[in-house]
Specification:
The protein contains 5 helices and 6 strands, in the order E-H-E-H-E-E-H-H-H-E-E. It has about 140 residues and is α/β, with parallel strands linked by helices. It has a domain of about 90 residues: Alpha-Beta Complex (Ribosomal Protein L13p, Chain: A). It is globular and about 55 Å long. The N and C termini lie far apart (about 40 Å).
């Protein structure tokens, strides 16, 4: 018996809008990662990218619980000796609020080529407006 692999036409992918205002960061990231990977579809396969596009708005209004606002630390390396830089959630959310959502979602996707393909379908915006009205996104 032959295994059937679903064919996904890039034009058949849907677009979803997620409003992050007042919602916990982990819950938003989990919902977005499931849609990006296609786990909400009956045709999901772990080695196949069948997910949809996701637009996250109001990234600066995302919530974290407990003391994570001051205790959660993000690291990045500049590439130079002694170039490990760290910043708190509070500082990163004030300067680049979309980066906090992007990092949370990226950590929940597969690590590798397939995860990078899924991550490209994520669009995160600071405010309530986005330039993707032509795709007729569905609100979640």
């Amino acid at each position: 018996m032959d295994t059937l692999f679903p064919k996904v036409d890039p034009s058949s992918r849907k677009w979803f809008v997620v409003d992050a205002a007042g919602k916990p960061l982990g819950r938003v990231a989990n919902t977005v990662a499931r849609i990006l990977s296609g786990k909400n579809k009956p045709t999901w396969s772990p080695h196949f990218d069948c997910g949809d596009h996701v637009i996250v708005v109001n990234a600066e209004k995302v919530m974290v619980t407990g003391k994570k606002r001051i205790q959660k630390i993000y690291y990045h390396y500049t590439g130079y000796p002694g170039g490990l830089r760290e910043t708190t959630f509070d500082h990163l959310n004030r300067t680049l609020p979309q980066r906090t959502v992007e990092k949370a979602v990226k950590g929940m996707l597969p690590q590798g080529k397939l995860g990078r393909e899924m991550y490209r379908k994520l669009k995160v915006y600071k405010g309530p407006n986005h330039p993707h009205q032509a795709q007729n996104p569905v609100s979640l």
